[in-house]
Design brief:
Order of helices and strands: HHHHHH
Distance between the termini: 54 Å
Largest sheet: none
CATH architecture: Orthogonal Bundle
CATH class: Mainly Alpha
Number of domains: 1
Number of helices: 6
CATH superfamily: Cytochrome c-like domain
Mean pLDDT: 89
Strand content: under 5%
C-alpha cells in the first residue's frame, strides 16, 4: 500500500511540474500573438508611442511612466500608487484590462488564453534592458 501511495504522490508531483513548465512563455509564439497589439503599441529599437505607449522595458516598470504619453486619469492614479508592471500584473491586465484599470483608454478586451498571455509577456521581456 505504501508503494501505491508513493506512486500516486509521484504522479501528482510530475503532473504539477508539467503544468508549471507549460506556463512558461515562449517569446516566438508571443511575437505572433503580439500582432494583435501592434496597431496601438510599438516595441523594439526605435519604438515610439502610438495610440498606446511604447512597450520597451514594460516588465518591472511603474504604470503610467512613459514620457510623452497621455495616460488616462485611472492609469496615472495607479502609477502614483506605485503599481508596477510585474509579470503577474501584466498577466492580470492582459486577461481583462478593465479589471485592472476600469476607466482606462485601452479598449482591447484581453487575451483569454493563459498561454497566449505568458507568451506575450515572454516576448515583451526581450525588450527589457
Amino acid at each position: 500500500m505504501k508503494i501505491l501511495s508513493g506512486i500516486a504522490a509521484l504522479s501528482i508531483a510530475l503532473f504539477v511540474c508539467a503544468g508549471a513548465a507549460q506556463a512558461e512563455g515562449n517569446p516566438e509564439e508571443g511575437e505572433a500573438v503580439f500582432k494583435k497589439c501592434r496597431t496601438c503599441h510599438d516595441v523594439g529599437e526605435g519604438g515610439k508611442n502610438k495610440v498606446g505607449p511604447v512597450l520597451n522595458n514594460i516588465v518591472g516598470r511603474k504604470a503610467a511612466s512613459v514620457d510623452g504619453f497621455a495616460y488616462s486619469t485611472d492609469m496615472k492614479n495607479l502609477g502614483a500608487k506605485g503599481f508596477v508592471w510585474s509579470e503577474e500584473n501584466l498577466g492580470k491586465y492582459l486577461q481583462n484590462v478593465k479589471n485592472v484599470v476600469a476607466n482606462g483608454k485601452m479598449v482591447f478586451p484581453g487575451l483569454g488564453d493563459a498561454q497566449d498571455r505568458e507568451d506575450v509577456i515572454a516576448f515583451l521581456k526581450k525588450f527589457n534592458k
